[in-house]
Amino acid sequence: MSIFTALLSGLIFGLGLILSGMANPAKVLGFLDLAGNWDPSLMFVMGGAIGVASIGFAVAARRKVTPAGEPIKMPTARQIDRPLIVGALLFGIGWGLAGFCPGPALVALGMLEPKALVFVLAMLAGMGLFEWNSRRQIKSAT
Amino acid sequence: MAFIGGMLGAPLIYRLFIELPAIQIDAHYGVLIAAGLIVGVGTRFGSGCTSGHGVCGLSRRSPRSLVATITFMAAGFAAIYAVRHILIY
Q1: What was the pLDDT predicted at B60?
Q2: pLDDT 10s digits, A41-52
Q3: Burial track A103-123 (b if 16+ CB lie within 10 A, e otherwise)
Q4: Which of A88, A96, B21, B32 has CA 20 to 30 A from B43's CA?
């Protein structure tokens, strides 16, 4: 992906997250807290995003290159395995505890929120931990 | 990296046009660190997050993403339920 397209996509994505309230952990937790004063509005954000993205992915499925001429690569994994479930469980717990998922946390960091910085640093450490562990496993397997 | 740059810059651009909405982060620093760690490990291990599986994956009608989305939504509901209605902080 060219730098310009990536920058523009990130910008549009970020603007959408701010405008929709996804970048506000209190709002996200209001959505996740079914037993509290439940705020279902973010469901429509996700629904709307899927509606728009479906069109894009349907177009992408019929093409081999992007309008900018870059090759289109789609995920090829098919099995529903343990890493998928365990990873989604861990991610969901963290999301429910803090109200942050990776995208909105980065946007909140751009708003210069100290708490977002702490979350993002911990998240990067978590990703690093995963990398370190998978490299160690590859080493011990050979 | 440029994509991340765009996301970080989004609030700056947003502010040029309208006032940024206030955001509220209730979690304490300890909770944020723990949550950040498991979000980092979990998104790598499960190959995706709310946008990766939830938006992109579901838009592609990926069965893997459907399972992941149901799983992390359920875990999210359960986590905040435990915090707000069982542990109460």
Answers
A1: 94
A2: 999 999 999 999
A3: bbbbbbbbbebebbebbbbbb
A4: B21
